[in-house]
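Input for the complex:
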Amino acid sequence: MEPDAQLVQLCLRGDGPSWEELVRRHTRRVYNLCYRFTGNAASAEDLSQEVFLRIFRTLGSYQAVHGAFPTWLTSVTRNLLVDHYRRTRRDRVTDSMEDTMPQLEEKHSPMRAPDKLAEAAELSEQLQRGLARLSPELREAVILRDLQGLDYGEIRGVLQVPEGTVKSRINRGRIELARVLDEMGVRPAQS
Amino acid sequence: MRWEFARRNPEGAEFMDWHCTRTEEQLSDFLEGALPAAEAAAFSSHAASCADCSKLVAQVRGLMRQIEETPQLEVPAPLERKILDATLGPRQETAGTQGWFGWLPLIWQPRFAMGIVTVAASFVIVFHAAAGDNGRSVLNPLNLLRGANRQVHLTYARGAKMVNNLRVVYEIESRLSAQPESMSEPIAPPARPSNDGQPGQQPPANDPHEKSQTIPHPSHHSTPELAEMNLQPHFADGSLYPAPRSTL
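Predicted:
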């Protein structure tokens, strides 16, 4: 049994430390997904809490045989993000990128020099601005595939669409994002 | 040349032939290495001969590399705690001995270390200044006890002295109030003690204020001004004010 599935079983027996461990293991994934989708740090934080609150209440409905826990967690997160998107559609301003960009995770780049870190932060912000200009369908497909690292089968499980549609959305999302970044003057990195 | 590969409209057909459309559709598979070898070769061949497709491939490949190099965002520090508080309820940070001594690492922080050094230096200065010139410390508990004992005795002695003084004053006042109401009448001189040992009006011998009992003769008449103002002298010497205490 996978570690996440074991933790879920312990949580269902009322083991608090197991729930803490589960939260620590997946907070970054959920927060990054929320931020990349909304482009707003405060909203991403609130939505992350909402996700874990829902997970906590519906943990009993998770069945390991139907998929890995991260896939189920991503599916719950994605559903909440879609709800949030529909709820805030009328209130949304065209550019929600005015908020301060969250700090980048330095754990993944311990040897980065300050200028490299600043360059990475600028890169991340440009990417976020480009994602904000995609349609929600293409945006979530690119985020799940390229930023969250899910495979096609997992994305199909999250989005509840055929795998062909998943591949098509990812492909079109990448092309559209590249075009948007080109219009923004962002040149692709050379190999 | 402007990209037109992603814009599907009837007018854009002249910008893209069938091969370009297929290149676009299979771009992700090609970049992820999921195309069969034959199709991958045809893809590469077309991309090498088509400027638009070549640029498209370079752009998307650069985008995917850019995404790979983008580090994950750092999770806000209080987020995990907020989540746990919202689900498990507010709890203390740690329990047991770890909770008791959880503050220890804080003292190694520069600001707390400087504060501790400052407080320690202040204590050293205070104790040094409290020590007397002859080496006797004012803060010695024995010296403190002696000082407190001395203060208690001094306070008691001052209180006793004040009570005695008040007692004298009230006694004088009570004697004066016992005088005849009209001070215009001459007051008979006090009877002198007879030779035969008659006490007469001699006050009790046990009066501790023997000197004060010798009240001087008042004037035979009150002063005209006092009589005119219908004021009666309150004291034996005809004045409105008591004699100085030194005369008692």
